[in-house]
Amino acid sequence: xxxxxxxxxxxxxxxxxxxxxxxxxxxxxxxxxxxxxxxxxxxxxxxxxxxxxxxxxxxxxxxxxxxxxxxxxxxxxxxxxxxxxxxxxxxxxxxxxxxxxxxxxxxxxxxxxxxxxxxxxxxxxxxxxxxxxxxxxxxxxxxxxxxxxxxxxxxxxxxxxxxxxxxxxxxxxxxxxxxxxxxxxxxxxxxxxxxxxxxxxxxxxxxxxxxxxxxxxxxxxxxxxxxxxxxxxxxxxxxxxxxxxxxxxxxxxxxxxxxxxxxxxxxxxxxxxxxxxxxxxxxxxxxxxxxxxxxxxxxxxxxxxxxxxxxxxxxxxxxxxxxxxxxxxxxxxxxxxxxxxxxxxxxxxxxxxxxxxxxxxxxxxxxxxxxxxxxxxxxxxxxxxxxxxxxxxxxxxxxxxxxxxxxxxxxxxxxxxxxxxxxxxxxxxxxxxxxxxxxxxxxxxxxxxxxxxxxxxxxxxxxxxxxxxxxxxxxxxx
Length: 478
Prior knowledge:
The chain is 29% helix and 25% strand. It has helices at 16-25, 47-52, 54-73, 88-113, 191-202, 222-235, 327-341, 370-375, 391-395, 424-427, 429-436, 441-445, 456-464; strands at residues 3-10, 30-34, 116-119, 121-124, 129-133, 139-149, 153-155, 168-169, 183-187, 206-211, 238-241, 244-251, 254-261, 264-270, 272-275, 279-281, 314-316, 355-357, 362-367, 380-386, 402-408, 414-421. The strands form five sheets. Strands 1, 2, 3, 4, 5, 6 and 17 form a seven-stranded mixed β-sheet that branches. Strands 8-15-9-10-11 form a five-stranded parallel β-sheet, with helices on one face. A hairpin with a 2-residue loop joins β13 and β14.
């Protein structure tokens, strides 16, 4: 006999666990299935983000940044610190402790909200039934009024660089190095590659990033992207654009990488190689043939604007569906779907979802880029303000970067905000609010921002849209 629930969620990552909690808060009898086993052999919640993604990578980024500050920047502040060393194992242990606290916290939230947790692999069958296969091979069936698929994504593997224990690793393996490699190769110059490359570069690795595309961070506003590349190169990352890796050879605990670019074929030797060329939706074993759920041509679960699949009463959210693979996007979809199931009105504004690259300085964006507006023939105007002219940035010894605001030339409505600078990931939410409430650039310009703060650069960029910036010369507007 099967158990019956109003909602069954497959996956307990940022989309799944949030959807389960929200559904339970709305009075729905809710179950959540998760198969994740951590490196200690314990079943845990949180999915990729908490266990081997967002959280652990930020723990290493923060630790490596503090080390870099101590060894390179303290003297600027008059702080004398000599013989500073990094204990990599202790850094990894701290990362693991944070993961444990957060994954344990989700367990507590499930208990507090009455979410029933099941351990194992969930598989959607016909008629909104879900089969759970436990780690010992035993199975049970749940019946659901509604099913939410939140099975997430996995790293893409490439034939020229097959994963090899301890030498050629994916993003998960790169979080477990117990010592700093002298020579580190990174295949993929996207968000993950740059973040992980930054971590180990700060700790002393000679880092080379291979990016197959000719354009650096092609999805970013290119005025910002050019500054980011210049900054990372200055920090020591060697970024090879238009570089296609064609093969790898392991010789005596070293990895030789062969690659081609506009100048021909080359090779380079590394102590470690990280493969991070992207992620793909995880649907293996999640859908029975008769589940009624369809996949699109790229392997994502097909959904409509409200995350409904082709099977009635079945929804899918997060990395397994279209759109950016971002934890916060998955969470918002989870909340919206739970609300819809409970009979409420809900939607996700996909035009106001921010993205952040946690290098130092950070890179953050929301809305349209200048290139997108040009391609769509949208009339626009821009306001740019450099952190070099911001007093708080000077006191922080971090004057790299800028704030850029794009507004409609006729209506003045904010269309996009792009920030490269310290704490950009926090500052970008001014732009998120502006887009969500259809603010004009003048709305931002008329607000009072505290002094001295980094956020004043947002204010000045808004003023600059119409040539009214106070703390820099203004460009003449057309």
